[in-house]
Amino acid sequence: xxxxxxxxxxxxxxxxxxxxxxxxxxxxxxxxxxxxxxxxxxxxxxxxxxxxxxxxxxxxxxxxxxxxxxxxxxxxxxxxxxxxxxxxxxxxxxxxxxxxxxxxxxxxxxxxxxxxxxxxxxxxxxxxxxxxxxxxxxxxxxxxxxxxxxxxxxxxxxxxxxxxxxxxxxxxxxxxxxxxxxxxxxxxxxxxxxxxxxxxxxxxxxxxxxxxxxxxxxxxxx
Length: 222
Fold this sequence. Notes:
Elements: E1 2-15, E2 18-31, E3 35-39, H1 46-53, E4 61-66, E5 69-70, H2 76-86, E6 87-91, H3 102-112, H4 117-130, H5 146-157, E7 164-168, H6 176-191, E8 195-199, H7 203-206, E9 211-216, E10 219-221
Parallel strand pairs: 3-8, 3-9, 6-7, 7-8
Antiparallel strand pairs: 1-2, 1-4, 4-5, 9-10
Helix pairs in contact: 3-4, 3-5, 4-5
């Protein structure tokens, strides 16, 4: 089953009075349950593609379908609801709220979906225990190692039980041991039936994928 259908998307930026093409007429299909890696040199459009797929960055032209929904034909509120219900995001910079605990950072996604406080705490606890942070739930992000922060971000990405996980360089800042842990988690999520798309410079992460997309100058080759 096709989960994502990308139709001739282009993304242009204006820089110093000139138009710069970040994505050039990209078309591709991604099936439900696939693990796809996106590789290529810095500045080739990898992160732009991921944000566009995730409904966070409108293309200059073209369309992105998640199942039968054309994401950028939806209203901003409808698009936010799709992201909230269907997509989990994992970034290299973690994007944790520094003054909240690990537990509270995971609870945010559950709060936004309308879960009761009891349900938030129960599920957030379960997710943090799954990623090996059962003894760090009350720690703020500044009190956690880089690897622990990424595992909190991973638990948060799973809070809405997403069908699609989008990860942008998820192992880029990690030590070798934590890198192996994150790779194992991504594989296990995919084995559970989730679609995973990961932007990476790491050949070992790319090797986990069923399919690799190479971006060069904003164009994709499979």
